[in-house]
Amino acid sequence: MNVADLLRRPGTIREVHLEVPVSGLENPSATVDADQPLTIDLRLESLTGGIVASGRVRGQWRAVCSRCLLPLAADFDLGLREVFEEDPIEDETYPLRHEEIDLEQPIRDLVVPDLPLVPLCDDACLGLCPSCGANRNEEPCHCGSEARDPRWEALRALVITDDPERRSESN
Ligand SMILES: [Zn+2]
Ligand SMILES: [Zn+2]
Q1: Measuring CA to CA, which residue among 9, 142, 129 is closest to residue 68?
Q2: Which ligand is nearest to the Cα of residue 70, counting in written order?
Q3: 8, 12, 61, 141: which could form a disulfide with 129 (CB 3.0–4.6 Å)?
């Protein structure tokens, strides 16, 4: 984005509204679709030898619930305030080169740390049953009571091989 006009007169303000996709907004658990545009509303203000960009970045990330694997999506709305200057301070300000600023890196630095590492459809999500795979949010799972506990296997075998004659004797 060219900011030559702003730099010519310090104190000048330009409002910017952009709807553009930004690639690479992801972590191992969540992603902003590459073709999903972000809504960017910024106010650029020129200082002597620099630009302050402040405003909001909105978009939507997608993920699957870490417990029940249900697809989920959520909107984000983040505040941005960054300084661009010709001699940027590492990890603090961004470069201003050839009277241009590049918003991509600051937007990535803003959005990526905000993506969830452990996305959940709900804090109370019960997840999937590790035995039968049932979604325990939707149906009660009876695996807990029916699980084949090895200590019961011997008893089960006894019932099956039970001699009918002996059973009648005991009656
Ligand atoms: Zn879930
Ligand atoms: Zn189950």
Answers
A1: 129
A2: 1
A3: 141
Could you tell me if 45 and 84 are in contact, meaning their C-beta atoms sit under 8 angstroms apart?
no
- The residue-averaged pLDDT of 142-157 equals 58
Ligand positioned closest to the Cα atom of 68? 1
**DSSP line for 80-138:** EEEEEESSPPTTT-EE-BTTB---HHHHHHHHGGGS-SS--S-TT---B-TTT--BTTT
The number of the ligand nearest the C-alpha atom of 147 reads 2
How confident is the model over 156-165, as pLDDT tens digits?
Answer: 555 554 555 5
If you measure from the C-alpha of residue 127 to the centroid of ligand 1, how many angstroms do you get, rounded to a whole number? Answer: 5
CA 66 to CA 118: how far, in whole Å? 6
* Tens digit of each residue's pLDDT (9 = 90 or more) over 21-69: 999 999 999 999 988 999 999 999 999 889 999 999 999 999 999 999 9
pTM: 0.77
């008893």: which residue's tokens? 155
At 80-131, the pLDDT tens digits run: 999 999 999 999 999 999 999 999 999 999 999 999 999 999 999 999 998 8
Tokens of 10: 């310090």
**Domain region containing 54:** 1-171
